[in-house]
Specification:
alpha+beta
C-alpha cells in the first residue's frame, strides 16, 4: 500500500468518525402528552387538564445525557426546562 493510499484511508476514517460523532450528539426530538384531573375535596372543584412535554435529547459520550424543552399546561402556560440525566435513559 502506497503512502497516498494510506493517507486516503486515514482521512476517510477520520471523516467517518466525525460524521458518527455529529450524528450521535445531535438532538433527538421527543413529544409526550399526559391527561389529568385537578380536583379539590373542599370546594368540589374538578377540571381536566393536559400536560405536554416536548424538546430534544442530546446524547453525550460520558453517559450524562441532557434534555432541553418545554412543558405546556392546557396550551396556556409554558415553561422552558433543561435537565441532565444520570444514565442512558
Amino acid at each position: 500500500m502506497t503512502i497516498i493510499h494510506k493517507r486516503i484511508l486515514f482521512y476517510a476514517s477520520l471523516l467517518a468518525v466525525v460524521i458518527v460523532l455529529i450524528l450521535y450528539h445531535g438532538g433527538v426530538p421527543f413529544e409526550k402528552s399526559y391527561n389529568g384531573i385537578l380536583y379539590s375535596n373542599e370546594d368540589a372543584f374538578e377540571q381536566k387538564t393536559t400536560i405536554k412535554v416536548e424538546g430534544e435529547l442530546y446524547k453525550r459520550l460520558s453517559g450524562k445525557h441532557r434534555i432541553v424543552g418545554n412543558v405546556t399546561v392546557d396550551e396556556d402556560l409554558t415553561y422552558r426546562f433543561a435537565a441532565d440525566l444520570d444514565g442512558p435513559e
